[in-house]
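Dear Dr. V.,

Thank you for agreeing to look over these. As mentioned in my earlier message, I'm a first-year student in the group and I'm still getting used to reading structure tokens, so any feedback on how I've presented them would be very welcome. I ran two proteins. I've put each sequence directly above its structure. The first is here:
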Amino acid sequence: MALPVGLARAGGVAAALGGALWAVKVLNDGFVPGESGVADPIFFVLPLLFIWGLAGFYIRYSEDMEGEGTAGFAQSFAGLAILAAGYFLNLTLQVEDTARIVSFGFIILTLGLVVLGFATLKTEPLPAGNFLPLVMGLLTPLTIIIGGEALLQASISALFGIGWLALGVLVLIGPRTRVK
């Protein structure tokens, strides 16, 4: 079983890297109005890093979560795939009006993370921070509710990236040991 553990750890690195880049991008865009942002050219890669990180999370923790956990994983994967497709169409093929695709991807991802979050709270498979997927799922709607306050939106969105970074670290650490 060395291969899946290695893939899981690589997924942890991917999620942590994607989360850090996400946070840097949104903070740069939020604090420097009118500039494109340092991570913009690779922004469409971030959902792919998150997919890899979520795959690592699934490899590490799926045995502990059935039902809701599997549904949350599947929904999160689908949301990230739609998000990646929207960013790909926008940034590489210059397809206009991809905001609806990206928004739909975020909605599906958000719902998946909330379901996954409830499953992790129920089964407590993580070594720490079982609340993390639920909080990450709730941050996206919070940015919509905040509305036009750019600095606050950027800060909340950066927390979303930091959540992925933390999730990546938890995937690297691996499952907690259970006393029988």
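The second protein is here, in the same arrangement:
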Amino acid sequence: MLFDGIQPSSFIKVLFVLSIFSALINYLVNSFCLAFGEMRIYLITFGISSLINLSIISVGIFYYNFDIYNCLTITVFIELISAICSFIFLSNIKELKGYEATKGFRDVINYASQSYLGVSGSTLISNGDTIVLANILTQESLGIYSIAKTVYRLFSIIPQTINSVIFGILCDLNAKNASVLVNKTCLTLTLLFTSIFIAGVFSLDKLIVFVWGIEFSTAYEPALILLIAATFISATSPMNPYFLTQNKPMISSQITLISGTLGLVGAIMLAPHFGIIGAATSVLIAGMTTCVLRIFNYRKLTKVV
């Protein structure tokens, strides 16, 4: 099993930190891909690396008895390889040769830096609950929570993929038409994730037992809380590429840092007293805050009363 024979140690914390660091490097390179408008590089490296990572880990767990060390190590290597590939592709684009000395290049760097501020903060903070749990709970409890977080991340791929697709479309639309597309996409995702949550209430416990075994059945409650958080975040996720395409990357970064900080503080305060339920609740707090702040800034930006 994934956590069989794993004892609390500093090594697993080092692997968590390395996985976060590798993700930060990957996000840094991909932020420049977006800033330079190289959506193909972003979609190929980000999408393929995520698929490869998920496939290798899934096969390893089911057929080769991978433990948490194997999974984290693979994640670190794939993130780093993805970042290196993105950098190589980006640095060899002919249109960018000689662009470094122009004022436009400095504007792109500024845009990418502002975007990366939010992404990096999100990466550090989104893993904060796991790091907090690693310091206060047994590896068994951490394993149960990791299952719940896996369910959460699997469904989070949906809005991330949609955002990647509509980002390029929004770049070619004026503000009014872009807001119409964002509104329709938000409504679609709201209905989709509400349906997923309702289905999860009745079937998620059975799915967890079927995939991971009866010993992980207690992951149902935190997974359900995380699904609510995913619903709040996903319902407003198309607003994020809207902020970016309207040259307002700092809005996205500020929202991420504020909501993420609240979630991290919540994990520190709630996890010691309520364990994995408290950690999941901290993610829900961050998700609800993200939703409210996105709507507030989106309405302000589009002047919708």
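From my reading of the second output: Confidence is low (pLDDT under 50) at residues 1-8. The chain has two domains: 1-97, 136-305. Does that match how you would interpret it?

Kind regards,
E.
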